[in-house]
Amino acid sequence: MIYKVEKKINKESGKATERSVMNSITIDCVIFGFNKNGLEVLLVQHGVGIRKGEWGLPGGWIREKESIDNAAKRLLADLTGLNNVYLEQLKAFGKPDRFPLGRVITIGYFALIMRDDYTIQPGFTASDAKWYKINEIPNLIYDHNSILDYSIDCLRNRVRQAPIGFNLLPDKFTLLELMRLYEEILGIEMDKSNFRRKILKMKLLVELNEKQKKVSHRAAKLYEFDQKIYDKLTEKGFNFEI
Amino acid sequence: MIYKVEKKINKESGKATERSVMNSITIDCVIFGFNKNGLEVLLVQHGVGIRKGEWGLPGGWIREKESIDNAAKRLLADLTGLNNVYLEQLKAFGKPDRFPLGRVITIGYFALIMRDDYTIQPGFTASDAKWYKINEIPNLIYDHNSILDYSIDCLRNRVRQAPIGFNLLPDKFTLLELMRLYEEILGIEMDKSNFRRKILKMKLLVELNEKQKKVSHRAAKLYEFDQKIYDKLTEKGFNFEI
DNA sequence: TCAAAAGTGTTCCTGTTACACCCATGC
DNA sequence: GCATGGGTGTAACAGGAACACTTTTGA
């Protein structure tokens, strides 16, 4: 029974014929990116199987000897070529009928990456990959729409309680760029002045001796987020909150 | 290979010889209870296998045709005899060496139950079950200590952002009882007067025409939490926060 | 009448909100 | 000079923290 399921799955995905991976468990990853288009998600098109041509979250199998976190990291690196990416587990999704060809539980992850770094590598489970705006998501395979919805809720919560939003921006950014990021993710409008005060008061940004270049307005100062400063502050009981 | 692993697991737990469950995936549940002793967790003692006599989280296998949420519900009902229990998934735990006899990923859950309701039912994977205070947890099997630690962090966050703490109290409770609950979970001291104001201002408690009885001091009013009121408020954009 | 907890009121202080306004730069 | 976004300042308000005080009940 289980063997049969595994064979079918392999037909579908066209991979993992050796016994080096766990069966009945997969990983699916919501990859968030941010640029002038706003918040986007990287989706892949299935290259083989009955759902060929349809879009879904990038995902894959877990090898026998790797942790689930490392499996997610590996899948992400294979697809994007990026290594030190912010990655966090969402939760497990396990409705019995979520996958039509057998009982497969999937563990959801979300990643935050800096768009400009990114060049698409043809992933082994995808014939194509494409960024989609957060509010223009098509119908996805399996339960991937609900995983995606869940990930957005999760991102909105997390981004307000931990300084993880910086992972979506270049190393050096202006305060307004940071504010636009929060506005986009949270879907709200913020006050420039109040945002500046709030974020600067936390003292976890490093003010650089550098300014924007080639902008048709007064050049803004660039700032940097320093994880070490944040770690020190949290040790002393500091809680990030926006 | 996988079959071998499964046989070993069965020896260990003394169950699931049919093929009606998924292999390589389990569920472990952190069950929180609250009474005059404070916040406690229900642990079970392994009845058979090499870890006999050691304590761990109650858990079990997922049947082929049930969702993971329902599997957790079922396990909880089998152990405690309770049915409508507040239950939430933590996340999946999947270090490759977390289970010594083979690769098994577990999905963690936490439950909030009202202690007085509770009578221990001999669970099929446990020879004994016992409540442990949150800060007197012994060494547990496998990675159960880290699952438990994670669940406490998670509870502390959740209890401040959603009105789930009520599940640990009787239907009717006084404001001070509620405050003591928060103090215990969050590990902080609160001001009686400020807490009253805050919680009453939310208008999600129903004031009953009833008072405490047989107390050797002024009897306090009893209140009730009404999920419907909360749902209506959240529709209007209300956010619970303590 | 005393202990213990219920319940009310008030003051101080901080952080947030909603603005108005000036500054620098490219076109 | 004007449009655009950068950056500063402030007054009004809301909410939280800290604390004092009165009330009710059983023993």
UniProtKB/TrEMBL annotation, chains A, B:
Domain Nudix hydrolase: 24-155
PROSITE patterns: NUDIX
Pfam name, any one: NUDIX
SUPFAM superfamilies: Nudix (SSF55811), Winged helix' DNA-binding domain (SSF46785)
Protein name: NUDIX domain-containing protein
Organism the protein comes from: Flavobacterium rhizophilum
